[in-house]
Amino acid sequence: MAERFYPRTVEEVFDDFKGRRAGLIKALTTDVEEFYQQCDPESENLCLYGHPHGEWEVILPAEEVPPELPEPALGINFARDGMQEKDWLSLIAVHSDTWLLAIAFYFGARFGFDKAKRKVLFDMINELPTVYEIVSGASKKQQKEKSSVSNSSSKSKSNSKSGVISKAQTKHVEVEEELEDEEEEEDEEQVLCGACGDNHGMEEFWICCDVCEKWFHGKCVKITSAKAQHIKHYKCPSCTNKRPRP
C-alpha cells in the first residue's frame, strides 16, 4: 500500500487547504441539493469533509481516538430541519472554516513550521475569502452593487479575444475592460467565483446568476459561452435548488 502523502512545506499545506476549501464550498453551493439530501437527520452523527483534490464527502467521523487528523464538526445533519436552510448552511460554513484552519496548522505543527512560516501560511490563507463569506455572500455585497451598475451600462461586444465575463442577458464583455475599472477599487472588491471562491482564470468564461448576482466560472457551473447566449435569465445551481422553507 502506498504511503499516504502529507504536505510538508508552506506551499503544499496551502494547496491542501485550497483543495479542501474548494470541496466544502462546492458542497454548500453548487452541490447543495445533493448535500442537503445526504444530511438526513435520521442518520447517525455525520460530518462534512473536504478533500485535498477538491471533492467533498458526508460520512461518519473517524473511529480512531485520537483521530489521525483534526475532525470537522460532528452531527451537522441533526439541525437540518430545525433551522432555516440558509442559517443551517452558514453554521456549517463557520465550522468548516474552523476545521480548515485546524488542518492547516496541524500540518504546520507536525512538520515544525517556525514563526515566520506560520505567518506566511496564515497570510496566504487570509487572502482568500472564508467558506462562510462565500456561502453567506458577505464577501460580495459591495461587488454585487458594483456589478449591477456595471452590467446596466456595459456595451455589447460581438468578439471577445481573451478573458470574458458574461451575464446571461448581455453579450460578452472583455475581462480586461472590467479589470481596468476594478483596479481603481480595493483588492477586496475583486470578482470571486461563487462556486470555488477564487478569482483565478480571468481569461476564462464567467457567468452571473440573475437571482443572487454571484459570478461563477463557466466550467464550475457547466455553462459554456455558446450555451449562455441562449439563456435569457440564468439561475445558478444553488438558486435553482433552493426550496421555500416552512
What report would you give on this structure?
42% of the residues lie in helices and 8% in strands. The longest helix is centred in the middle third of the chain and has 26 residues, at 85-110. The protein is of the alpha+beta class and 246 residues long. The protein has helices at 10-28, 32-38, 85-110, 115-126, 131-136, 141-153, 175-182, 218-221, 225-228, 237-241, and strands at residues 47-50, 56-59, 164-167, 173-174, 206-208, 215-217.
Structure at a glance:
The chain has 246 residues and is α+β, with helices and mostly antiparallel strands.
Averaged pLDDT: 82
The first-to-last residue Cα distance is 50 Å
- How much helix, percentage-wise, in residues? 40-55%
Give the count of helical stretches: 10
Taken from the alpha-carbon principal axes, the silhouette is globular
Sequence of strands across the biggest β-sheet: 4-3-5-6
Task: Please mark out the parts with pLDDT under 50 across 5 or more consecutive residues, or reply none.
Answer: 155-175
Main sheet: strands, sense, barrel: 4 strands, mixed
Strand content: 5-15%
Radius of gyration: 19 Å
Structural class: alpha+beta
List the helices and strands in order.
Answer: HHEEHHHHEEHEEHHH
> Would you count the extended β strands for me?
6
Strand and helix map with partners:
Elements: H1 10-28, H2 32-38, E1 47-50, E2 56-59, H3 85-110, H4 115-126, H5 131-136, H6 141-153, E3 164-167, E4 173-174, H7 175-182, E5 206-208, E6 215-217, H8 218-221, H9 225-228, H10 237-241
Helix pairs in contact: 1-3, 1-4
